[in-house]
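Many introductory courses stop at the sequence. We go one step further.
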Amino acid sequence: MTLLPVIFFENDVKLIFDSLVDSDLNPKVFEILKFITIIFIGSFLFLLYIHKGITKKDKFILVLEFLVTVILASLLSPIYWFTFYFCFFHGLRALINIGIKSFRDIIFLIAFTLPVTFFSYFFLFHNLQISYLTIIFSVLMALTISHMFLPLINRLLLSNFKNR
């Protein structure tokens, strides 16, 4: 889902990638990324449709989340979309996967992620200059790597706790 903006804002995404690698990337790269993203979307929808183990309610929620994500990717510039996606949707999904289930937990999560999202949008990116992109993406990469390990750490801690 991270590459959805390449479908709607190919030139803007190319500019971001070019500035991150300090080079002029071949436009074919973005045509390939767009193709891969479209194939992924089709595969996701097809597999969701044919999978019998997912309840209708969960399929509805997944399709709704998918549609909101695509709509936002088509309306927001790539940097703003990525901020919203990363800070809100992706974080929410990751935390739900590690066990946040109650309404109170969701409200708590929203109370902490929306301010970060709005701060990023209005203060950090309002006068964004390309030179800040390397810092922003480096920080986001560090956060992503650490939060990829969060479910594993959570499972290990829970299994150690249950074994006592």
